[in-house]
Amino acid sequence: MEIRNYQASDERGWVRCRVLSFLDTAYYDDVHREKEKFENPSIELVAEKDNQIVGLIDIEYDTEDEKVCSEEGTGGMIWHLAVHPDYQNEGIGSQLMERASEEAIKLNLEFLEAWTRDAGNSAAWFEKNAYRQVDEYYHLYLSDQDMAHTVQPGDDNLQPLYMFAQYTGDNIEQFESIERKYKCMCYIRNL
């Protein structure tokens, strides 16, 4: 396996790896047809094995003019960390993280920040890799039935059928009947 910088010619393999790696997670519907472009500088690495992209990590980092991370100091936001399902549990994610951390240290970044959901094993993976939880809120996916009970009526010409929402309040219990409800947690690792 080779870990190297992302190249434009990797885009199709990158998208395929990301989609397949998210398929059995709480992010299964966060599908993109092309790789995101970042406004700030970034560390973009891929793991290649058997002539295909089997892992990826994208970290956009703070500059003097533009902050990406929520914490004080100069950090890097991990937007994507994914390993193709056929290659998981081989240490590829850890190797990508190690290489990205080395690059971040060279850039004088003070920390890496990642947001993930409580479903699946990603939170445990970050904790195992020296990240500490510093914040949380909820992601809610409301169906039309959910919204009939929780969303106040407004414009009769607008009839939402589905809603994705962030909830930062203290009364998450009011949404106990919502099937797709995830705690979204922020993890920080000092470099």
Keywords:
single chain, 191 residues, alpha+beta, Aminopeptidase, 21% helix
The CATH architecture name of the domain at 2-134 reads: 3-Layer(aba) Sandwich
- Secondary structure tally, helices: 4
Separation, N- and C-terminal Cα atoms: 25 Å
Number of strands: 8
Strand content: 35-45%
Mean pLDDT: 90
Secondary-structure class: alpha+beta
Radius of gyration: 18 Å
CATH H-level superfamily of the domain at 2-134: Gcn5-related N-acetyltransferase (GNAT)
Write down the overall geometry.
Answer: globular
Task: Kindly describe this structure.
This protein is 21% helix and 35% strand. The chain is α+β, with helices and mostly antiparallel strands and 191 residues long. The chain has a domain at 2-134: Gcn5-related N-acetyltransferase (GNAT) (Aminopeptidase, 3-Layer(aba) Sandwich), CATH 3.40.630. It has an eight-stranded mixed β-sheet. A hairpin with a 2-residue loop joins strand 2 and strand 3 (52-61). The protein is globular. The model has no long low-confidence stretch (mean pLDDT 90). Residues 1-152 form the N-acetyltransferase domain.
In short:
This protein is an alpha+beta fold.
Question: Strands, helices and their partners?
Answer:
Layout (H helix, E strand, L loop, with lengths): L1 E4 L5 H12 L19 E8 L2 E10 L13 E9 L8 H15 L4 E7 L4 H7 L3 E12 H7 L11 E6 L12 E11 L1
Parallel strand pairs: 4-5
Antiparallel strand pairs: 1-2, 2-3, 3-4, 5-8, 6-7, 6-8
Keywords: Transferase
GO molecular function, one term: acyltransferase activity, transferring groups other than amino-acyl groups
Protein name: N-acetylglutamate synthase-like GNAT family acetyltransferase
